[in-house]
Amino acid sequence: MTSKRSFRMLLSLFIALSIFGVLANLFFPNEVIGNVYPGIDFDQNAFEFLYLTVYSYSTMLLLIVSFVGLFMFKRWARDLFVAYFLISIPSYFLFDFPYTATGITQLLDNLSWVMIGFLIAVMYLAPVKKFFFDKDVEHTNLANEGF
Question: N or C of the chain: less Cβ packing under 10 Å?
Fold first, then answer.
């Protein structure tokens, strides 16, 4: 298996983990969590809501654009993915609303954070690093490599 194919498979695994983590709340609801939220007063003003919305959509857009670039081994996509990682970290400290999660949701969230770190390490180390600087990669078709 080539390094390109392995990297793309890891990236696909990260995407699948992230999507499944979001969908897990829909398909595996927790009765206790459902009972906790109605008793919480969120008293969120319009500015905080707007800030949270803009922050969420901008980080999501940043992630999607970086995924496209990473699949095509674009040099700028590595920096964009690291920027997404660095911008996502303060979200745990900036938003002071209560957060509850089921066990599977927390597991998938933790796995996706580990995958982010692993992908960053792989992108900046050999042998995958060379593909981001290879001029021929820009002209290769994904179908030629089987993935």
Answer: N
